[in-house]
Design brief:
extended; mainly alpha; 68% helix
Length: 168
Amino acid sequence: MALKETLERVDADLAAGRVPMARQRLRGLVSSYPHYPALRRRLADIYRMYGDPAEAGRWTYLEEDGLPEEVAAFEKRYSDPVRRMRALAWQGPESAADSPFAEEQLATVRTAASKALGHPVTWDTLAEVRGDAPEAGSWRQSLAAMGCALLAIMFVGIWVNGFLDLFR
């Protein structure tokens, strides 16, 4: 689907109150057109509607006039430079950025990620990189995994106990 038609659908979704659908469409557009700052700004506006300053800051991180509190929230949520680099969803060289500020931001994040990894990384080789820090809130994921494991152990124990009772 072309950029113009998708943006028309985003407008229709927003007019109909289908904000999650509009957000999903814009995320897809940013993935396809990472160098279009207007798409990033629109996505930031949607996250502001959700009251999520970290995601709004994520999508205005390359804008010189991004709100400092949103940028700070983004940097806090994505404190690991490799995760921050992934979150920005940039493709290609920094020179493709639309402003010197955006180019500098991208270069700063890439340099920090290269330093953290101990070897050079580019925006195009980032997909091959492993070893970035776990996402914020990963303790919840760990707790959920432990709960699932405990339930599985209990289930197996009950099953074994019932199986042994058959032969008593």
